[in-house]
Amino acid sequence: MFDFEKYIKPETIDETIKYISENSDARLIAGGTDILINLKKGKFENLTLIDIHDIKELKFIKIDDNKNILIGSGTTFLNIIESDIIKKHIPMLIKAASSVGGPQIRNIATIGGNICNGVTSADSASSLFALNAVLILKGINGKREIPISDFYLGHGKVDLKETEILIGFKITPNNYKGYFGHYYKYAMRNSMDIATIGCAVSLKINHGVFQDYRIAYGVAAPVPMRCLKTEKAVINQKISNELLNKISNMVEKEVNPRTSWRASKEFRMNIIKELSKRVTKKILISVGEKI
Amino acid sequence: MFQEISFILNGKKRKFNIDVRKSLFEILREYAGIKSVKQGCKVGECGACSVLVDDVLIDSCIFLGLWADGKKIKTLEGQAKQGKLSKVQQAYVNEGAIQCGFCTPGFIMATTSFVKKNKQKNVTIDEIKKNHAGNLCRCTGYQNILKAVKKSLRN
Ligand SMILES: Cc1cc2nc3c(=O)[nH]c(=O)nc-3n(C[C@H](O)[C@H](O)[C@H](O)COP(=O)(O)OP(=O)(O)OC[C@H]3O[C@@H](n4cnc5c(N)ncnc54)[C@H](O)[C@@H]3O)c2cc1C
Ligand code: FES
Ligand code: FES
Protein backbone atom coordinates (compact mmCIF):
# COMPACT_ATOMS: atom_id res chain seq x y z
CA MET A 1 0.00 0.00 0.00
CA PHE A 2 1.33 3.42 -0.91
CA ASP A 3 1.09 6.13 1.64
CA PHE A 4 -0.98 9.01 0.23
CA GLU A 5 -4.10 10.84 1.38
CA LYS A 6 -5.78 12.05 -1.76
CA TYR A 7 -5.69 10.96 -5.38
CA ILE A 8 -6.57 13.01 -8.46
CA LYS A 9 -6.38 11.88 -12.06
CA PRO A 10 -6.60 14.80 -14.50
CA GLU A 11 -7.15 14.21 -18.23
CA THR A 12 -5.22 17.17 -19.62
CA ILE A 13 -2.25 19.45 -18.94
CA ASP A 14 -4.49 22.40 -18.09
CA GLU A 15 -6.57 20.35 -15.68
CA THR A 16 -3.33 19.20 -14.02
CA ILE A 17 -2.19 22.80 -13.53
CA LYS A 18 -5.55 23.69 -12.00
CA TYR A 19 -5.28 20.82 -9.52
CA ILE A 20 -1.67 21.65 -8.61
CA SER A 21 -2.70 25.22 -7.85
CA GLU A 22 -5.58 24.03 -5.65
CA ASN A 23 -3.47 21.52 -3.68
CA SER A 24 -0.33 23.06 -2.25
CA ASP A 25 0.93 19.71 -0.90
CA ALA A 26 0.46 17.86 -4.20
CA ARG A 27 3.02 15.77 -6.05
CA LEU A 28 2.85 14.58 -9.63
CA ILE A 29 3.31 10.94 -10.53
CA ALA A 30 4.39 9.96 -14.06
CA GLY A 31 6.15 6.56 -14.26
CA GLY A 32 6.24 6.37 -10.48
CA THR A 33 9.66 4.67 -10.28
CA ASP A 34 10.97 7.38 -7.98
CA ILE A 35 7.94 8.63 -6.18
CA LEU A 36 6.34 5.25 -5.42
CA ILE A 37 9.56 4.14 -3.75
CA ASN A 38 9.52 7.29 -1.62
CA LEU A 39 5.86 6.74 -0.79
CA LYS A 40 6.69 3.25 0.44
CA LYS A 41 9.35 4.72 2.67
CA GLY A 42 6.67 7.01 4.14
CA LYS A 43 8.63 10.11 3.10
CA PHE A 44 5.55 12.30 2.72
CA GLU A 45 2.69 13.13 5.04
CA ASN A 46 -0.86 13.83 3.86
CA LEU A 47 0.23 13.77 0.27
CA THR A 48 -2.08 14.51 -2.62
CA LEU A 49 -1.04 12.48 -5.62
CA ILE A 50 -1.81 13.97 -9.03
CA ASP A 51 -1.57 11.20 -11.59
CA ILE A 52 -0.24 12.27 -15.01
CA HIS A 53 0.70 8.71 -16.03
CA ASP A 54 -1.94 8.47 -18.77
CA ILE A 55 -1.96 12.05 -20.07
CA LYS A 56 -1.54 11.63 -23.83
CA GLU A 57 -0.55 15.28 -24.37
CA LEU A 58 2.73 14.55 -22.56
CA LYS A 59 3.72 11.55 -24.68
CA PHE A 60 5.32 12.55 -27.96
CA ILE A 61 8.53 12.56 -29.94
CA LYS A 62 8.35 14.77 -33.02
CA ILE A 63 10.13 17.27 -35.25
CA ASP A 64 8.38 20.60 -35.82
CA ASP A 65 8.50 22.88 -38.91
CA ASN A 66 11.64 24.58 -37.60
CA LYS A 67 13.38 21.20 -37.26
CA ASN A 68 13.27 21.33 -33.47
CA ILE A 69 13.13 17.89 -31.89
CA LEU A 70 10.38 17.83 -29.26
CA ILE A 71 10.20 15.14 -26.58
CA GLY A 72 7.22 15.00 -24.20
CA SER A 73 7.94 14.68 -20.50
CA GLY A 74 5.77 11.55 -20.35
CA THR A 75 7.93 9.74 -22.90
CA THR A 76 9.31 6.52 -21.42
CA PHE A 77 12.88 5.36 -21.93
CA LEU A 78 11.40 2.50 -23.95
CA ASN A 79 9.71 5.04 -26.26
CA ILE A 80 13.06 6.82 -26.70
CA ILE A 81 14.95 3.62 -27.47
CA GLU A 82 12.36 2.66 -30.08
CA SER A 83 12.06 6.10 -31.70
CA ASP A 84 13.30 6.46 -35.29
CA ILE A 85 13.62 10.23 -34.85
CA ILE A 86 15.93 9.84 -31.85
CA LYS A 87 17.86 7.02 -33.53
CA LYS A 88 18.50 9.17 -36.59
CA HIS A 89 19.24 12.54 -35.01
CA ILE A 90 20.38 12.09 -31.41
CA PRO A 91 21.56 8.49 -30.93
CA MET A 92 23.45 9.50 -27.77
CA LEU A 93 20.08 9.77 -26.05
CA ILE A 94 19.35 6.14 -26.96
CA LYS A 95 22.61 5.21 -25.31
CA ALA A 96 21.56 7.14 -22.21
CA ALA A 97 18.05 5.67 -22.15
CA SER A 98 19.36 2.10 -22.56
CA SER A 99 21.66 2.53 -19.60
CA VAL A 100 18.80 3.20 -17.15
CA GLY A 101 17.90 0.41 -14.68
CA GLY A 102 16.65 -2.80 -16.26
CA PRO A 103 13.88 -3.44 -18.81
CA GLN A 104 11.03 -3.17 -16.31
CA ILE A 105 12.25 0.30 -15.26
CA ARG A 106 12.98 1.54 -18.81
CA ASN A 107 9.52 0.39 -19.88
CA ILE A 108 7.78 2.76 -17.52
CA ALA A 109 10.18 5.44 -16.20
CA THR A 110 9.82 8.77 -17.98
CA ILE A 111 12.44 11.25 -19.13
CA GLY A 112 10.43 14.03 -17.44
CA GLY A 113 10.56 12.25 -14.07
CA ASN A 114 14.27 11.63 -14.55
CA ILE A 115 14.95 15.37 -14.83
CA CYS A 116 12.31 16.68 -12.39
CA ASN A 117 13.62 14.66 -9.47
CA GLY A 118 16.74 16.81 -9.66
CA VAL A 119 19.37 14.16 -8.98
CA THR A 120 22.85 14.40 -10.44
CA SER A 121 22.96 10.71 -11.40
CA ALA A 122 19.97 10.95 -13.78
CA ASP A 123 21.19 9.10 -16.86
CA SER A 124 19.40 11.30 -19.40
CA ALA A 125 20.67 14.54 -17.86
CA SER A 126 24.25 14.70 -19.17
CA SER A 127 23.13 14.08 -22.75
CA LEU A 128 20.40 16.70 -22.48
CA PHE A 129 23.02 19.13 -21.12
CA ALA A 130 25.34 18.37 -24.05
CA LEU A 131 22.43 18.94 -26.45
CA ASN A 132 21.55 22.30 -24.84
CA ALA A 133 18.02 21.00 -24.32
CA VAL A 134 15.40 23.59 -23.46
CA LEU A 135 12.63 22.72 -21.00
CA ILE A 136 9.08 23.72 -21.78
CA LEU A 137 7.14 24.38 -18.59
CA LYS A 138 3.55 25.43 -18.07
CA GLY A 139 1.86 26.84 -15.00
CA ILE A 140 -1.06 29.04 -14.07
CA ASN A 141 0.76 32.05 -15.58
CA GLY A 142 1.35 30.37 -18.91
CA LYS A 143 4.23 28.73 -20.69
CA ARG A 144 7.94 29.41 -20.33
CA GLU A 145 11.12 27.90 -21.68
CA ILE A 146 14.44 27.59 -19.87
CA PRO A 147 17.75 25.93 -20.70
CA ILE A 148 18.33 22.70 -18.79
CA SER A 149 21.46 24.16 -17.16
CA ASP A 150 19.28 26.79 -15.43
CA PHE A 151 16.69 24.24 -14.30
CA TYR A 152 18.90 22.52 -11.74
CA LEU A 153 19.18 24.61 -8.58
CA GLY A 154 20.86 22.14 -6.24
CA HIS A 155 20.72 18.52 -5.16
CA GLY A 156 17.11 17.42 -5.58
CA LYS A 157 16.02 20.99 -6.31
CA VAL A 158 14.76 22.16 -9.68
CA ASP A 159 13.24 25.38 -10.93
CA LEU A 160 9.64 24.15 -11.09
CA LYS A 161 7.48 27.07 -10.00
CA GLU A 162 4.56 26.37 -7.71
CA THR A 163 1.88 25.48 -10.25
CA GLU A 164 4.15 24.26 -13.01
CA ILE A 165 4.38 21.01 -14.90
CA LEU A 166 7.15 20.02 -17.29
CA ILE A 167 5.61 19.55 -20.71
CA GLY A 168 8.73 18.47 -22.51
CA PHE A 169 12.12 19.15 -24.04
CA LYS A 170 13.13 21.04 -27.15
CA ILE A 171 16.38 20.44 -28.97
CA THR A 172 16.99 23.02 -31.66
CA PRO A 173 18.63 22.01 -34.98
CA ASN A 174 21.78 24.07 -34.31
CA ASN A 175 22.34 21.78 -31.33
CA TYR A 176 22.08 18.43 -33.09
CA LYS A 177 22.62 18.87 -36.85
CA GLY A 178 26.17 17.90 -37.75
CA TYR A 179 26.95 16.80 -34.20
CA PHE A 180 28.12 13.36 -33.12
CA GLY A 181 27.69 12.30 -29.54
CA HIS A 182 28.10 9.48 -27.08
CA TYR A 183 27.12 8.75 -23.48
CA TYR A 184 29.06 6.45 -21.20
CA LYS A 185 27.79 5.34 -17.82
CA TYR A 186 30.42 4.10 -15.43
CA ALA A 187 28.80 2.01 -12.70
CA MET A 188 29.79 -0.89 -10.49
CA ARG A 189 27.42 -3.19 -12.34
CA ASN A 190 26.44 -3.19 -16.02
CA SER A 191 22.75 -2.84 -15.23
CA MET A 192 20.46 -1.93 -12.37
CA ASP A 193 22.94 0.46 -10.87
CA ILE A 194 23.20 4.19 -10.38
CA ALA A 195 26.05 5.87 -12.27
CA THR A 196 29.32 6.35 -10.39
CA ILE A 197 30.01 8.85 -13.16
CA GLY A 198 28.08 9.57 -16.36
CA CYS A 199 29.80 11.34 -19.24
CA ALA A 200 28.23 12.75 -22.40
CA VAL A 201 30.20 14.32 -25.23
CA SER A 202 28.77 15.95 -28.34
CA LEU A 203 31.07 17.37 -30.99
CA LYS A 204 31.28 18.75 -34.49
CA ILE A 205 34.34 18.09 -36.58
CA ASN A 206 35.58 19.39 -39.93
CA HIS A 207 38.82 18.24 -41.59
CA GLY A 208 40.23 17.12 -38.25
CA VAL A 209 39.41 20.39 -36.49
CA PHE A 210 36.83 20.69 -33.69
CA GLN A 211 34.09 23.09 -34.80
CA ASP A 212 32.35 22.58 -31.50
CA TYR A 213 32.91 20.46 -28.41
CA ARG A 214 30.66 19.84 -25.44
CA ILE A 215 31.33 17.68 -22.42
CA ALA A 216 28.81 17.06 -19.65
CA TYR A 217 28.94 14.94 -16.50
CA GLY A 218 26.56 13.40 -14.02
CA VAL A 219 27.68 12.77 -10.42
CA ALA A 220 30.71 15.03 -10.93
CA ALA A 221 29.02 17.74 -8.85
CA PRO A 222 25.77 18.17 -6.85
CA VAL A 223 23.94 18.66 -10.15
CA PRO A 224 24.70 17.56 -13.73
CA MET A 225 27.15 19.97 -15.35
CA ARG A 226 29.09 21.05 -18.43
CA CYS A 227 32.82 21.85 -18.43
CA LEU A 228 32.60 25.13 -20.29
CA LYS A 229 36.23 26.25 -19.95
CA THR A 230 37.48 22.95 -21.31
CA GLU A 231 35.03 23.15 -24.18
CA LYS A 232 36.24 26.62 -25.13
CA ALA A 233 39.84 25.48 -25.18
CA VAL A 234 39.01 22.63 -27.58
CA ILE A 235 37.12 24.58 -30.20
CA ASN A 236 39.20 25.27 -33.36
CA GLN A 237 41.88 22.84 -32.21
CA LYS A 238 43.14 19.92 -34.25
CA ILE A 239 42.56 16.35 -33.10
CA SER A 240 45.60 15.03 -31.27
CA ASN A 241 46.47 12.88 -28.31
CA GLU A 242 47.97 15.94 -26.63
CA LEU A 243 44.62 17.64 -26.93
CA LEU A 244 42.89 14.65 -25.34
CA ASN A 245 45.32 14.81 -22.43
CA LYS A 246 44.71 18.52 -22.13
CA ILE A 247 40.95 17.90 -21.99
CA SER A 248 41.41 15.38 -19.23
CA ASN A 249 43.56 17.78 -17.20
CA MET A 250 41.22 20.69 -17.74
CA VAL A 251 37.99 18.89 -16.72
CA GLU A 252 39.67 18.01 -13.43
CA LYS A 253 39.71 21.70 -12.52
CA GLU A 254 36.03 22.22 -13.33
CA VAL A 255 34.30 19.30 -11.62
CA ASN A 256 33.55 18.79 -7.96
CA PRO A 257 32.81 15.15 -7.16
CA ARG A 258 32.27 13.92 -3.61
CA THR A 259 32.93 10.85 -1.58
CA SER A 260 29.95 8.60 -0.92
CA TRP A 261 29.52 4.94 -0.04
CA ARG A 262 29.59 4.20 -3.76
CA ALA A 263 32.99 5.70 -4.49
CA SER A 264 35.57 8.09 -3.15
CA LYS A 265 36.17 11.55 -4.56
CA GLU A 266 39.62 10.47 -5.78
CA PHE A 267 38.27 7.43 -7.59
CA ARG A 268 35.52 9.49 -9.20
CA MET A 269 38.12 12.02 -10.35
CA ASN A 270 40.08 9.26 -12.07
CA ILE A 271 36.96 8.10 -13.88
CA ILE A 272 36.06 11.65 -14.86
CA LYS A 273 39.49 12.23 -16.39
CA GLU A 274 39.60 8.88 -18.16
CA LEU A 275 36.07 9.14 -19.55
CA SER A 276 36.74 12.55 -21.10
CA LYS A 277 39.35 10.91 -23.31
CA ARG A 278 37.59 7.64 -23.87
CA VAL A 279 34.21 9.08 -24.84
CA THR A 280 35.75 11.73 -27.12
CA LYS A 281 37.97 9.15 -28.80
CA LYS A 282 35.08 6.76 -29.28
CA ILE A 283 33.13 9.41 -31.20
CA LEU A 284 36.14 10.43 -33.29
CA ILE A 285 36.82 6.83 -34.28
CA SER A 286 33.15 6.22 -35.05
CA VAL A 287 33.18 9.06 -37.60
CA GLY A 288 36.37 7.78 -39.22
CA GLU A 289 38.87 10.22 -37.73
CA LYS A 290 42.32 8.90 -37.01
CA ILE A 291 43.63 9.08 -33.47
CA MET B 1 -10.57 5.67 -1.37
CA PHE B 2 -12.13 2.95 -3.49
CA GLN B 3 -12.66 2.83 -7.21
CA GLU B 4 -14.00 0.30 -9.65
CA ILE B 5 -11.60 -0.95 -12.31
CA SER B 6 -11.68 -3.72 -14.86
CA PHE B 7 -9.01 -5.41 -16.89
CA ILE B 8 -8.49 -8.51 -18.99
CA LEU B 9 -6.53 -10.91 -16.83
CA ASN B 10 -5.01 -13.79 -18.80
CA GLY B 11 -7.80 -13.48 -21.36
CA LYS B 12 -10.72 -13.10 -18.94
CA LYS B 13 -12.45 -9.86 -18.09
CA ARG B 14 -12.28 -9.12 -14.35
CA LYS B 15 -13.79 -6.31 -12.29
CA PHE B 16 -12.63 -5.13 -8.90
CA ASN B 17 -13.47 -2.42 -6.43
CA ILE B 18 -9.98 -1.48 -5.32
CA ASP B 19 -8.31 0.73 -2.79
CA VAL B 20 -6.53 3.24 -5.06
CA ARG B 21 -3.44 3.14 -2.83
CA LYS B 22 -2.73 -0.47 -3.71
CA SER B 23 -0.12 -1.63 -6.19
CA LEU B 24 -1.00 -3.93 -9.06
CA PHE B 25 0.98 -6.56 -7.17
CA GLU B 26 -1.43 -6.29 -4.24
CA ILE B 27 -4.48 -6.30 -6.51
CA LEU B 28 -3.28 -9.46 -8.25
CA ARG B 29 -2.49 -11.37 -5.09
CA GLU B 30 -5.22 -10.13 -2.75
CA TYR B 31 -8.15 -9.57 -5.10
CA ALA B 32 -7.47 -11.75 -8.14
CA GLY B 33 -5.93 -14.85 -6.57
CA ILE B 34 -2.79 -14.61 -8.68
CA LYS B 35 -0.06 -16.16 -6.57
CA SER B 36 2.72 -16.39 -9.16
CA VAL B 37 3.70 -12.77 -8.52
CA LYS B 38 6.23 -12.78 -5.71
CA GLN B 39 7.39 -10.07 -3.41
CA GLY B 40 11.16 -10.07 -3.38
CA CYS B 41 12.05 -6.46 -2.75
CA LYS B 42 8.92 -4.28 -3.17
CA VAL B 43 11.04 -1.55 -4.80
CA GLY B 44 11.62 -2.50 -8.42
CA GLU B 45 14.98 -4.19 -7.95
CA CYS B 46 14.34 -7.93 -8.26
CA GLY B 47 11.65 -8.53 -10.90
CA ALA B 48 9.95 -11.33 -8.93
CA CYS B 49 6.65 -9.46 -9.34
CA SER B 50 6.99 -8.99 -13.14
CA VAL B 51 3.86 -9.11 -15.30
CA LEU B 52 2.95 -7.91 -18.79
CA VAL B 53 0.62 -4.92 -19.13
CA ASP B 54 -0.51 -4.63 -22.76
CA ASP B 55 2.50 -6.82 -23.51
CA VAL B 56 4.94 -4.45 -21.79
CA LEU B 57 7.01 -5.98 -18.98
CA ILE B 58 6.69 -4.10 -15.68
CA ASP B 59 7.32 -4.63 -11.98
CA SER B 60 3.84 -4.87 -10.49
CA CYS B 61 5.11 -3.76 -7.05
CA ILE B 62 5.78 -0.23 -8.32
CA PHE B 63 2.75 0.05 -10.58
CA LEU B 64 -0.48 1.56 -9.29
CA GLY B 65 -3.36 -0.92 -9.45
CA LEU B 66 -5.46 1.78 -11.07
CA TRP B 67 -3.16 1.91 -14.08
CA ALA B 68 -4.31 -1.58 -15.01
CA ASP B 69 -7.83 -0.28 -15.71
CA GLY B 70 -8.82 -1.16 -19.27
CA LYS B 71 -5.56 -3.01 -19.95
CA LYS B 72 -4.62 -6.59 -20.76
CA ILE B 73 -2.65 -8.17 -17.93
CA LYS B 74 -0.69 -11.37 -18.45
CA THR B 75 0.82 -13.38 -15.61
CA LEU B 76 2.44 -16.77 -15.39
CA GLU B 77 -0.96 -18.36 -14.75
CA GLY B 78 -1.99 -17.56 -18.32
CA GLN B 79 1.07 -19.02 -20.02
CA ALA B 80 0.20 -22.72 -20.11
CA LYS B 81 -2.62 -23.53 -22.52
CA GLN B 82 -4.83 -26.59 -21.89
CA GLY B 83 -2.36 -28.04 -19.46
CA LYS B 84 0.54 -27.60 -21.89
CA LEU B 85 3.43 -25.40 -20.82
CA SER B 86 4.42 -22.48 -23.02
CA LYS B 87 7.63 -22.85 -25.03
CA VAL B 88 9.45 -20.58 -22.62
CA GLN B 89 8.23 -22.52 -19.59
CA GLN B 90 9.20 -25.82 -21.20
CA ALA B 91 12.67 -24.46 -22.02
CA TYR B 92 13.17 -23.48 -18.36
CA VAL B 93 12.18 -26.98 -17.29
CA ASN B 94 14.38 -28.70 -19.87
CA GLU B 95 17.43 -26.61 -19.05
CA GLY B 96 17.07 -27.02 -15.30
CA ALA B 97 16.76 -23.24 -14.98
CA ILE B 98 14.69 -23.52 -11.81
CA GLN B 99 15.82 -24.30 -8.30
CA CYS B 100 13.73 -22.85 -5.47
CA GLY B 101 11.42 -21.31 -8.07
CA PHE B 102 10.82 -17.99 -6.32
CA CYS B 103 12.24 -15.92 -9.17
CA THR B 104 10.88 -18.16 -11.93
CA PRO B 105 7.47 -16.58 -12.65
CA GLY B 106 9.14 -13.17 -13.06
CA PHE B 107 11.89 -14.59 -15.23
CA ILE B 108 9.38 -16.47 -17.42
CA MET B 109 7.48 -13.23 -18.03
CA ALA B 110 10.71 -11.37 -18.82
CA THR B 111 11.79 -14.08 -21.27
CA THR B 112 8.30 -14.24 -22.80
CA SER B 113 8.46 -10.51 -23.50
CA PHE B 114 12.04 -10.75 -24.81
CA VAL B 115 11.30 -13.70 -27.09
CA LYS B 116 8.27 -11.97 -28.57
CA LYS B 117 10.40 -8.97 -29.55
CA ASN B 118 13.37 -10.95 -30.80
CA LYS B 119 11.98 -14.07 -32.48
CA GLN B 120 14.26 -15.37 -35.23
CA LYS B 121 16.74 -12.58 -34.53
CA ASN B 122 20.36 -13.28 -33.84
CA VAL B 123 20.80 -11.93 -30.35
CA THR B 124 24.03 -11.88 -28.39
CA ILE B 125 24.46 -13.24 -24.91
CA ASP B 126 25.00 -9.66 -23.74
CA GLU B 127 21.61 -8.66 -25.14
CA ILE B 128 19.98 -11.55 -23.31
CA LYS B 129 21.69 -10.50 -20.09
CA LYS B 130 20.78 -6.85 -20.53
CA ASN B 131 17.15 -7.75 -21.12
CA HIS B 132 16.96 -9.93 -18.03
CA ALA B 133 18.92 -7.57 -15.80
CA GLY B 134 15.76 -6.54 -13.96
CA ASN B 135 15.35 -10.06 -12.57
CA LEU B 136 17.42 -11.52 -9.76
CA CYS B 137 17.94 -15.20 -8.98
CA ARG B 138 19.63 -16.29 -5.79
CA CYS B 139 19.94 -19.98 -6.69
CA THR B 140 20.81 -20.93 -10.24
CA GLY B 141 23.86 -18.81 -10.99
CA TYR B 142 22.00 -17.75 -14.18
CA GLN B 143 23.80 -20.08 -16.60
CA ASN B 144 20.85 -22.40 -17.09
CA ILE B 145 18.50 -19.45 -17.35
CA LEU B 146 20.63 -18.09 -20.19
CA LYS B 147 20.47 -21.48 -21.89
CA ALA B 148 16.70 -21.56 -21.47
CA VAL B 149 16.36 -18.12 -23.04
CA LYS B 150 18.54 -19.16 -25.98
CA LYS B 151 16.45 -22.28 -26.43
CA SER B 152 13.23 -20.26 -26.29
CA LEU B 153 14.52 -18.02 -29.08
CA ARG B 154 15.29 -21.01 -31.30
CA ASN B 155 11.95 -22.76 -30.86
C1 LIG C 1 15.16 -0.25 -9.59
C2 LIG C 1 15.39 1.14 -10.08
C3 LIG C 1 16.49 1.42 -10.89
C4 LIG C 1 16.73 2.70 -11.36
N1 LIG C 1 17.81 2.91 -12.17
C5 LIG C 1 18.05 4.16 -12.65
C6 LIG C 1 19.16 4.40 -13.51
O1 LIG C 1 19.92 3.48 -13.85
N2 LIG C 1 19.36 5.65 -13.97
C7 LIG C 1 18.54 6.68 -13.62
O2 LIG C 1 18.76 7.80 -14.08
N3 LIG C 1 17.47 6.49 -12.81
C8 LIG C 1 17.22 5.26 -12.31
N4 LIG C 1 16.15 5.05 -11.47
C9 LIG C 1 15.35 6.20 -11.03
C10 LIG C 1 14.07 6.45 -11.87
O3 LIG C 1 13.64 5.28 -12.51
C11 LIG C 1 14.27 7.53 -12.92
O4 LIG C 1 14.72 8.71 -12.34
C12 LIG C 1 13.00 7.79 -13.73
O5 LIG C 1 13.32 8.45 -14.92
C13 LIG C 1 11.96 8.59 -12.98
O6 LIG C 1 10.85 8.79 -13.84
P1 LIG C 1 9.36 8.44 -13.41
O7 LIG C 1 8.46 8.83 -14.52
O8 LIG C 1 9.27 7.04 -12.96
O9 LIG C 1 9.24 9.42 -12.17
P2 LIG C 1 8.15 9.66 -11.05
O10 LIG C 1 8.48 8.84 -9.87
O11 LIG C 1 6.77 9.57 -11.60
O12 LIG C 1 8.48 11.19 -10.74
C14 LIG C 1 9.74 11.61 -10.27
C15 LIG C 1 9.64 13.06 -9.79
O13 LIG C 1 9.43 13.95 -10.87
C16 LIG C 1 8.22 14.67 -10.74
N5 LIG C 1 7.63 14.74 -12.08
C17 LIG C 1 7.44 13.70 -12.94
N6 LIG C 1 6.94 14.13 -14.11
C18 LIG C 1 6.82 15.49 -13.99
C19 LIG C 1 6.35 16.52 -14.88
N7 LIG C 1 5.93 16.25 -16.13
N8 LIG C 1 6.36 17.80 -14.43
C20 LIG C 1 6.80 18.08 -13.17
N9 LIG C 1 7.25 17.16 -12.30
C21 LIG C 1 7.25 15.87 -12.70
C22 LIG C 1 7.39 13.88 -9.74
O14 LIG C 1 6.51 14.71 -9.01
C23 LIG C 1 8.47 13.30 -8.84
O15 LIG C 1 8.85 14.21 -7.87
C24 LIG C 1 15.86 3.76 -11.00
C25 LIG C 1 14.76 3.50 -10.20
C26 LIG C 1 14.51 2.20 -9.74
C27 LIG C 1 13.30 1.93 -8.88
S1 FES D 1 9.11 -7.26 -5.69
FE1 FES D 1 8.74 -6.04 -7.39
S2 FES D 1 10.70 -5.83 -8.25
FE2 FES D 1 11.11 -6.90 -6.40
S1 FES E 1 15.56 -20.35 -8.47
FE1 FES E 1 15.70 -19.62 -6.46
S2 FES E 1 15.80 -17.48 -6.75
FE2 FES E 1 15.94 -18.21 -8.72
Oligomer: heterodimer
Shape of chain B: globular
CATH 2nd-level architecture of the largest domain in chain B:
Roll
The number of distinct β-strands of chain A equals 14
Q: What is the overall silhouette of chain A?
A: globular
What is the second-level CATH architecture of the largest domain in chain A?
Answer: 2-Layer Sandwich
Rg calculated over all Cα atoms of chain B: 15 Å
Quantity of strands of chain B, as a count = 5
Number of helix segments of chain A?
12
Broad structural category of chain B: alpha+beta
Main beta-sheet strand count, sense and barrel state of chain B: 5 strands, mixed
Main sheet record of chain A: 5 strands, antiparallel
Name the pair of protein chains with the most residues at their interface, and give those residue counts. A-B, 28 and 32 residues
Strand-helix topology:
The complex is a heterodimer of chains A (291) and B (155).
Chain A: E1 6-8, H1 13-22, E2 26-29, H2 35-40, E3 48-51, E4 61-63, E5 69-72, H3 77-81, H4 84-89, H5 91-98, H6 103-106, H7 111-116, H8 125-130, E6 134-139, E7 142-147, H9 148-151, E8 152-154, E9 157-158, E10 165-171, E11 180-186, E12 197-206, E13 209-218, E14 225-226, H10 228-234, H11 241-254, H12 265-286
Parallel strand pairs in A: 1-3, 2-3
Antiparallel strand pairs in A: 4-5, 5-10, 6-7, 6-10, 8-9, 11-12, 12-13, 13-14
Helix pairs in contact in A: 10-11, 11-12
Chain B: E1 2-9, E2 12-19, H1 24-31, E3 50-53, E4 56-59, E5 72-74, H2 87-94, H3 104-118, H4 125-130, H5 143-154
Parallel strand pairs in B: 1-5
Antiparallel strand pairs in B: 1-2, 3-4, 3-5
Helix pairs in contact in B: 2-5, 3-5
The complex binds flavin-adenine dinucleotide (FAD) and FE2/S2 (inorganic) cluster (2 copies).
